[in-house]
Specification:
Elements lengths: L8 H16 L4 H8 L3 H8 L7 H10 L5 H11 L16 H11 L3 E6 L10 H8 L8 H14 L10 E7 H5 L5 H14 L5 E6 L13 E5 L7 E4 L6 E3 L2 H17 L3 H14 L1
Parallel strand pairs: 1-2, 2-3
Antiparallel strand pairs: 1-4, 4-5, 5-6
Helix pairs in contact: 1-3, 2-3, 4-5, 7-8, 10-12
Length: about 280
Amino acid sequence: MAARTSPTERQRRLGFEVRRMRTSAGMSGEYAAGLLGVDRGKISHIESGVRAISPDRVRTLACNCGCHDEPYVEALAEMAQPAARGWWDKYRGSLPQGMLDIAELEAHSVRMRAAYTVHIPGLLQTSDHALAVFRAVLPPLPEHEIALRLAHRAERQQVLDGGNPPEFVAVVHEAALRMQFGGRDVVRVQLLQLANRSEQDNVTLLVIPFDAGTFPGAGQTVLYAEGPVPQLDTVQIDNSHGPDFLHAEGQLAKYRAHLDWMEGLALSPEASREFIQDIADQL
């Protein structure tokens, strides 16, 4: 298979898992190359996501590495299947790769937990609110790129609808609810949309009021995306330079505890909905 010039985050993650499986078994790259019938150099390319690996080779490697966790191995084999084009692929070359990686991560998640201290969850934003957010960046974006980001954002939101959508649990701080991106009218509509979406079966919205106390973290948006097996969970953090993706076990445990803490401080779903509606009524 031809080398990729720019592997996606999902492709890099598969390569990382292949390398972890090999090194955990104490298997050398040379041995793995002979086992899979490829050149030694291709092993490092597979492990960096630059080259693909077939599902059968994933299973062969797992068997010879003594990895008998069948759900994990089959999840990796599924990742190795030649992927059909996702809706996000049409934006490749037009939007930053990180935005496409987030959409792909969400599309393959079975459950998502997230925390927001300043922004409304992107998956629940109105177009007017998203427009105000995209216009508040440095350097300023040209109008055609803002239009692309709005279209991409609208398509991302469809992950919560349709057949068998993932569960989405979002913790939102009161500060985010009171930020007036786009002005009072835009905020009022946005808050009412939040309250309405929180009644959706697969959406749980939890509000942390100002008087709830302290919580850990540096204030970034945190998304914890659960994969088909726990070993494939991923944390995505927003930064000014773009998204960061974390999946070391220590990092996953840290952010699970982070979200547990914040969820423990938050109001119940029903009280959160009333809280949001009260703020909307004040505008």
